[in-house]
Design brief:
seven-stranded mixed β-sheet
């Protein structure tokens, strides 16, 4: 459950996120909420790692609460039980690089140590212990800088968001504004879990990166501060914020000061005037979107296999970004003060049909927006099937690349790595002029293609590479 913001409202000085593999844990989603809550309230956050695994054995039998233990063997304990050492290692590095102040390991001796072969009462580090030792050495030798999260996802304060989305608080029926939140979050962090096939799926590769904080802007004490909003280049309004005038005033001030707000017309209400939106709303019945959609500036068409409705508008200063085949404006961009507002007209950017779950679905209009946003806010471009994120250093950047594919782990058997699942990643440095490229864990130099300002890294299955880009 993503409840970190509520702890801070209640007076906590630090919030913890917990991850394991029981239930539908999605580590990146929890991270975005925990880090966002800490940034919003100027507090600290930490990561609690449990080793349990609710999954299946290779015969398809359900096995609950399997946990690694090198000193006990039964149905739920054993040296090959629980989550994979590869997932544990990736979680450790992600916690450090994302900015956690503390990392706590549930269970220690029984998972991190194992009896040494041929000796009595002597132990050595297990694969989990070796991962922790190597990781801790990295934290002591490699400054992490500041985790780079230039995009704020603005979620309603009363959402009660579970990591898997769906029903708010796990109780109330999910409605279209809730499905909009899921559409964005499942686009940013795609579904990747299939424990019946040994796919843990707690971390997901994504072309959109780990560059998001979730902010709950309409707090009981009033709207989020201008200082907090000013930390973000882009703010995306998600869900139903109930026509909050004070929040609308704060968001308009954010844009006027230089920010970019992404807003759907279903969220606009009466508090966002035409001069802010850059358009007039025609009213009347919704228009059926005629696919495919295209950008007036060119580029690939956006195929729309599902049915959508949009609101009819007349542009008044805004520039069209996306139109359907009938000429209806689906997205436009308006300059306001020093900033911009990106307005979308499609009903919550989701299909007309009721969406029972966003897991495993694609949302082409959300993808169109996120592709544009990521391209605009990042100082580099990452091409490849990988999870990635950035940390700003005083003399450059850290870029982490995590390959979450190629690991098979059932609840009670050893992990298996598929060597064919290497992620070949190309990084375009754009305007960055790198003076050196070093892989932080191995300290190996990485060749830099000066001609097109790129470099290439191979990330083995279930592994991580951390590149220091010196400027």
């Amino acid at each position: 459950w993503c409840f970190d913001h509520y702890a801070f409202v209640g007076g906590a000085d630090m919030a913890w996120m917990e991850t394991t593999n029981t239930g539908f844990y999605r580590h990146q989603v929890s991270l975005f909420f925990a880090r966002g809550a800490a940034h919003q309230y100027r507090k600290k956050w930490s990561w609690f790692i449990a080793m349990h695994y609710n999954g299946y054995d290779e015969q398809g039998n359900a096995l609950s609460l399997a946990v690694p233990n090198y000193f006990r063997r039964d149905a739920t304990h054993g040296p090959d039980h629980g989550q994979s050492p590869a997932l544990y290692e990736r979680s450790l590095y992600l916690a450090y690089l994302a900015g956690a102040s503390f990392v706590y390991h549930e269970g220690w001796y029984e998972a991190m140590c194992r009896p040494k072969a041929g000796q009595t009462n002597v132990v050595e580090l297990s694969p989990y212990g070796q991962a922790q030792k190597e990781w801790y050495g990295f934290t002591q030798s490699t400054p992490r800088g500041i985790s780079y999260a230039p995009v704020a996802l603005l979620v309603p304060f009363d959402q009660g968001y579970p990591q898997w989305g769906g029903n708010p608080w796990g109780v109330f029926r999910s409605e279209r504004p809730d499905a909009m939140i899921d559409a964005f979050i499942y686009t940013i962090v795609p579904h990747s879990r299939d424990v019946k096939k040994g796919q843990e799926g707690c971390l997901s590769n994504s072309r959109y990166g780990d560059i998001y904080d979730v902010i709950l802007p309409g707090t009981p004490r009033g709207p989020v501060s201008r200082e907090v909003l000013g930390d973000y280049k882009v703010a995306i309004l998600l869900g139903d914020h109930g026509g909050d005038k004070a929040l609308a005033d704060r968001l308009r001030a954010y844009v006027k000061a230089g920010g970019t707000l992404v807003l759907n017309l279903r969220q606009a209400g009466a508090h966002y005037p035409a001069s802010f939106l850059g358009l007039d709303r025609e009213g009347g019945p919704a228009a059926a979107v005629q696919g495919p959609a295209r950008s007036p500036a060119g580029g690939a068409a956006v195929e729309l296999p599902d049915a959508y409705d949009c609101e009819r508008v007349r542009l008044r200063g805004a520039a069209p970004l996306l139109e359907d085949a009938a000429g209806n404006v689906l997205a436009c961009l308006n300059a306001y003060g020093k900033g911009r507002v990106l307005v979308t007209t499609v009903d919550y950017l989701i299909p007309k049909e009721e969406i029972s779950s966003a897991a495993g679905r694609r949302f082409p209009l959300v993808e169109f927006l996120m592709d544009r946003i990521v391209r605009d806010v990042l100082p580099l471009e990452v091409k490849g099937d990988v999870e990635y994120g950035l940390n700003k250093l005083g003399d450059g950047w850290l870029l982490y690349l995590i390959n979450n594919r190629g690991v098979t782990k059932y609840a009670n058997t050893a992990q298996r790595l598929d060597p064919s699942k290497i992620a070949r990643v190309e990084v375009l440095l754009k305007e960055i002029r790198a003076e050196g490229l070093i892989e932080g864990r191995s300290q190996a130099a990485i060749p830099h293609n000066q001609a097109d300002n790129t470099f290439t890294v191979d990330v083995p299955p279930g592994d991580i590479r951390i590149i220091k880009i010196s400027e």
